Amino acid sequence: MSTDLRSLADVDRLIHEPSRTVILAILAAVESADFLYLQRETGLTKGNLSVHLSKLEDAGYVSIEKTYRGKVPLTLCRMTEPGRKAFEEYRKQLQQFVERTS
Amino acid sequence: MTDDLKKLQLRALQYWLVDGVGELNVGFFFLLVAIVYSLQESAPGSLLSKIFSIASVLLVCGGAFGVRWIIQRIKERTTYPRTGYIAYKSGWKNKGDVAIAIGVMALFLAFVVFTMVTDTKLTDWVPVVCGLFMGAFLVQTGYRSALPRFYILAFLSLLIGAGLVASGLSIVFSLPLFFGLNGLILLTSGSLTLWNYLRQTPAPQDTPDEH
Questions:
Q1: Interface pTM, i.e. ipTM
Q2: Average pLDDT over residues B167-172
Q3: How many CA atoms, within 13 angstroms, populate the side-chain half-sphere of residue B184?
Q4: Domain-embedded: residue B210
Q5: Do B210 and A50 touch (CB under 8 A)?
Q6: Is residue B208 in a domain?
Q7: Of A50, A72, A91, the CB nearest to B211
């Protein structure tokens, strides 16, 4: 395997899934976002988004807070510090791969 | 892919301005300031004038804190149930913000030096200074959000300020006119944006959270 391909193989597989990359990209830009916003932006079904968020939460990349806005339930998602570092590292690796191969 | 991610992040930053509620509130606040200031100046020295001068101070102080609170309450009823909620990071992390803030300070200092050197009456220039400050704030908003309508609003604000100074009107008329006209422009822009937003995003029928 060439060095270029090996560098791509080293990327965080948990982040290297399009839906989860999108979720983390959004959360990296804001303090927190709710379930509805993420659902609309990712285009995922509620069930799929829920599964992806659970995986990111299990990895410690995202924290999820269940709260209420008035009487309406609200699920707030925010990126944790390890999540921020992992996403930044992932971006760097991807960028380096693109630079080397273009 | 990186470009798509950047677009997603930009959309998240634009989200606060997507519904025009902010412009509507600030526009309404500017109209109130214009009305109270006009009433205050309508009969100088009278008891009513004194009451309105206190009211104008309270309005400006309260408005600084109150407008954002009102915007949040309106968004909770209109925007968040439709398209979701975002909380933003705080702080001066953007280099563009810092550059604009320094630019505004430099302009203000240049204005003070100019009035001192040319012995100009400071009050004559208040509308154009207000236009500069408001314009700078709107340019900053446009730059951060990449929404072109804020550059148009900035241009109009500066144009109104400069036009009022050029007209030679006394500050008693020019200042309420400045706030009144800008308030009307912001109300129009906000109304059009809100109308467009509500047309494109009907209210959801079920509760959003499934997690």
A1: 0.82
A2: 85
A3: 9
A4: no
A5: yes
A6: no
A7: A50
Q: Residue A102: inside a domain, yes or no?
A: no
The answer to whether B208 faces chain A, any CB pair under 8 Å, is yes
Contacts of B88 in chain A (CB under 8 A): 30-31
Residue B207 in any domain: the answer is no
Contact A69 B80 (CB under 8 A): yes
CB contact under 8 A, B8 and A47: no
CATH of the domain at A66: 1.10.10.10
CA–chain centroid gap for A73, Å, is: 22
Q: Which candidate in B10, B85, B207 is best for mutational testing of the A interface (most A CBs within 10 A)?
A: B85
- Interface check for A1 against chain B (CB to CB < 8 A): the answer is no
Give pLDDT tens digits for B75-118: 988 999 999 999 988 765 566 667 777 777 777 777 767 766 77
**Residue A55 in contact with residue A14, Cβ under 8 Å?**
yes
Dihedral of CA B147/B152/B157/B158: which sign?
A: positive
Domain count for chain B, please give it.
1
- What residue numbers bound the domain in which A18 lies? 3-97
A69 touches chain B (CB under 8 A): yes
Structure tokens at B17: 């301005």
Closest CA to A53 of A43, A42, A37, A64: A64
Question: CA B76 to CA B184: how far, in whole Å?
Answer: 24
Question: pLDDT-derived band of residue A47, with 50, 70 and 90 as boundaries?
Answer: very high
Chain segment A51-74, per-residue pLDDT in tens: 999 999 999 999 999 988 777 788
Decide: pTM greater than 0.90: no
